[in-house]
Amino acid sequence: MKLKDELIKGKGYSIFSIENMKELEILRDSFVKKINITNNGNADIYNVRKKLAKMPKSEINKSMINLLSFNNLSEMIINSCPSLVKSLCGKELFIQRRAHTIINVPGKGQQKQWTHYELMSGISPFTFVIWTPLHDLDDSGGVYYIDQKESLRMMRIEQNEGLVNGPRILNLMQNQKPAKLKFGQGIVFNPFILHGNVNFKSSLARIACNVRFQSIKKPLLQKNTDYLKYYKIP
Amino acid sequence: MSTASVTTDINIGPFKIPSNGQNMIMNNYAQRNNLIIEFVIPEPMMSNALATVQWLHKENKFNKVILCSIHQLPKEKKRINDLIKTMKNVEFHFALEGISGKGKNFILSAISEAKMFSKSKVLESDKTNWLNLYKMINPKNKL
Question: How many domains does chain B have?
Fold first, then answer.
């Protein structure tokens, strides 16, 4: 099945290999440099993860401010897999103005994110999301995806009940099996796929980034220039 | 040499922001970027010429101007040229987009991006529901 069909008519998400590893390595190293929390001598992703795991949440939030200067993260993620993005949306895109960096640290109550659809933020239904870790995922915790059939079944039930992200969705956090990705792999998914994050066992922090993109030929929903910018794949 | 914030009509491209809301957005942007606003300039409703700020600039020599969005920039060629001619040395800040810059190329690029977005169809979220939004990407799916 073609990727686009898999994402729209199939299970709604797909694991893929990064096409341009050099770009992803530059992205990872830029992240290490910009977050600027390790001594110069040992500035690599392992040491950043180690340091973050021991920092209090308030200190992590402060260090995230250093990442505000990372204003080409979206383009870097897109440029690490240009053929995939072009096959889904063409060359001319609306992409997230600032891609997200997600840092999860070990410890009770730190790593959970409730199950949700990306659409809830007001992005267009024609948007796709790429999520990729900045290192190997070394345990069986972390982010999970619920296939499209089940996601739509839940959506239909909730719509009939007049709810969005009600208790049924929140309870889906139990018994999920996250994908165990390597650095150089990513997940692409449509905005109707339920996903979330469960506890993980690693002693190191987990770092990932994600970007949302759509064709400029497709309609927008609630997000506009406040969230998106024009980008043409070179 | 000073910084001015500019409020405009409540309708700003796809957004609807009352002027006190515009001020809150710009004040927060200024605080986060260590800018001190000395002038608060209200442009008249139903105008996107930015004529008041240009007129005041001649006397007060602003070095920075803050607006809420790139959608507040003029759309007509003559008004765009007037703005560039008068304010090419002024640093423009757009709070919602979080971008800033100065000069003809920056202003034209911001106007061009706003135009590109304004050409896009916008789905009305108050006239649809989640399942109908899904049907847009996969009309054959029998939900």
Answer: 1
Query: Domain of B18?
Result: 2-137
> Does residue B125 lie in a domain region?
yes
- CB contacts under 8 A, B 34-93 vs A, are 69-71
For the stretch A174-188, pLDDT in tens is 666 777 899 999 999
Burial per residue of A102-138, b for 16 or more beta-carbon CB atoms within 10 angstroms, e otherwise: ebbbbeeeebeeebbbbbeeebbbbbbbbbbbbbebe
Mutate to test the interface with B, among A226, A227, A228, A232 (most CBs of B within 10 A): A226
| Residue position matching structure tokens 């999520």 | A131
Confidence of residue B19 (pLDDT cuts 50, 70, 90): very high
Is A163 in CB contact (< 8 Å) with chain B? no
Residue B99 lies in a domain: yes
DSSP codes joined into one string, A105-119? -SSTTTS-EEEE-GG
On average, the pLDDT of chain A sits at 91
User: Chain A interface, mutation test: which of B32, B72, B120, most A Cβ atoms within 10 Å?
Assistant: B120
A43 in contact with B, Cβ within 8 Å: no
